[in-house]
Amino acid sequence: MTTLAYGTNGLADHRLPDALALLAELGYGGVALTLDHMHLDPLAPGLADRTRAVASLLDRHGLEVVVETGARYLLDPRRKHEPTLVSDEGRERRVDLLRTAVRVAQDLGSPVVHLWSGVLPPGVPVRVGRERVLAGLEQVLPLAERAGVTLAFEPEPGMVVERVGDLVELRTVLGDPAGLRLTVDVGHLTCVEDAPGPDVIRRVGHLISHVQVDDMVRGVHEHLELGTGEVDLPGVLRALDDVGYAGLAAVELPRHSHAGARIAAESATALRAAAEQAGVAVRPPSVRPADLEVSR
């Protein structure tokens, strides 16, 4: 049974305790926690103590958690997402961040750390980019396996690992490690995959460890509010149910923090309506419409 969740990168204007309380009030059962300066900063002093405090908050609100590593300017204040696993310089800083994320996940009780590859620098062959991704994964996977944490790799439009098939190929090269699995962003499926999103999910369902939910249109990488694009959300939820997925389905709207409270409420309503249309159960069970009211 899928657990409805929301990403903290869509609540960047909220203090983390307020964001978690809001999500619990709205009936979400989980949170996709992006390690970033405004919530749980992985680079600031006292990380262990701050992580314990977050674990306590999650427990108080009954929220499951997945750790995400897609903060925009965490490692470089001038270059979005840099350095990445495929950068010409600084790749070791990304690897260190992923190692830290694994330790944070272990301390939070999160079974999953989300990650992606990065945009290939100009002039660098794709082959070299993939070699760099493999080298980075080989450094992080042993730690994740010892910690009992799965690395859930997200194919991202415009990055070296762009499609689901790219991740499947990487896993094959690495010997199909159990600790390396897949993050599916359902908007990305609509944006770049050839087959319909539900069909892709059914094809690779055995690999899915994390799901991000947003709307999108074909060929345009822009995260849209649910119901405003071309994603077949009931079909996606039905496919996840068909493959026995039991993790988080976390709304991923990183550019919508200015209206985060309203959009979190409307997204909860949209997700439950889609689940009802699909005829599938989600966790937590349905709540009354009044429970989802948030001031505009």
From TrEMBL:
Keyword set, alphabetical order: Carbohydrate metabolism, Isomerase
Domain of life, source organism: Bacteria
One GO molecular-function entry: isomerase activity
Start and end residues of each Xylose isomerase-like TIM barrel domain: 20-273
Short name of one Pfam family: AP_endonuc_2
InterPro entries on file: IolE/XylAMocC-like, Xyl_isomerase-like_sf, Xyl_isomerase-like_TIM-brl
Stored Gene3D superfamilies: Divalent-metal-dependent TIM barrel enzymes
Name used for this protein in its record: Sugar phosphate isomerase/epimerase
Protein source organism: Paraoerskovia marina
